[in-house]
Predict the structure.
Amino acid sequence: MKVLGISFGRTMKCSEILVKEALFKAKEAGAEVKFISTINMDIQHCKGCGACSAGRDKGKQIKCIIKDDYEILEQAVLDADGIIVAAPVYAVAPVGQLKNFIDRFGPAHDRAALEAEQKKRIAAGGELLDERALKNKYVGYISVGGAVTQNWVSLGLPTMHLFGFSLMMKPVGHIDAYDMGRTANPVLDENLMKKAGELGRRVAEAIGKPYEEVEWFGEEGTCPVCHNNLITVNKTTTVECPICGITGKLSIQGEQLKIEFSKEQQNRARSTRNGLQEHYDEIQGMKDVAIPKIMAVKDTLPVMLQKYKDFSEDWSL
């Protein structure tokens, strides 16, 4: 079993140290471990060209056409059985380099789309997709922030959970390591280092287990799937986890606020096969509506768009 540690933080600072502590314990649990620091990697933002998904759907292997260091990290993620990701929070949410990777990795590696395409290729006898992208993977997250108050890093862990959605990774646990400004260095916080090590051990020991048998490590959180505390309130007692996209029922019992998510809703969370399939079907339905619209105006649409193409980019217009 292979456990990959990824730090999106600075060299020998909090993110890197916490990931390495997790890897030490993962190795003690019997895993082969590998560490990647992205701090000096060039991972550009997604251009939205669609070449990766188009190639996938035309019998080719998945390939991003941007020439940078993205593929190094992509291949390491595909090679791994378990992954531990740490990222610093500079402005309420994680550093942008992590989001750059998520934007480029996710759409091309959507597991529902991969499984549908693989079935087609098997039936046609064509070249099969990379099997590494179809294997179950297990992931743990560490959000690192200097702020004393947790709300200054409140989008850290929720955003990090987007990392594992596309490949349907099973979240094993997460750690919200805020107040690092006063801590000065994570090795000075024995409890935090113990948590990081335990997360690494749990990720290693989860590998190969059925997802439903993996026990969560860390605070329970409001959502029973991602264990984050963000809730979208729609002015009714029906609320939503904005990370998992599932709805629950809100009630107030004295001073306690309670939210219940049914098993049916939990089973359609974005990180599940049902949730990914639901989104895949939604996208396919969009094509059925959009393509006929475009074809119906294919001669007049360029004329309608011309003024936007000619738009002046300076102040004069």
Remarks:
- The CA atoms of residues 1 and 26 lie 10 Å apart.
- The mean pLDDT is 95.
- The two ends are 60 Å apart (CA to CA).
- The first strand starts at residue 2 and ends at 7.
